[in-house]
Specification:
With 92 residues, this protein is mostly helical. The protein has a single domain, classed as Methane Monooxygenase Hydroxylase, Chain G, domain 1 (Up-down Bundle), CATH 1.20.58. The chain is 85% helix and 0% strand. It has three helices and no strands. Helix 1 runs antiparallel to helix 2 and helix 2 packs antiparallel against helix 3. The two termini are 29 Å apart.
Length: 92
Amino acid sequence: MDHCSKASVEALSLIKTARGQMDGIVRMIEEDRYCIDVSKQVLSVVALLKKANLVVIRQHLDTCVKDAVREDKGEEKIEEIASILEKYLGNL
């Protein structure tokens, strides 16, 4: 993965934001804050991580998968994507 790409910068920013929110959640729990407030923050982190993961997957499709298909080596990459989709859809 090109770590200087716009997508990589976006994914990294989302993950760093999630990390900051996680630190906040730890403080909330240590301070015995209201459970629903903590839960809302946890859901916010989950949403950020899902968004970051989609950015990473999109970048993978736009780079690695396209390159592999052009080289007639796309089957493995397609299987990787299918595996990720199974994990996503399995949680429904």
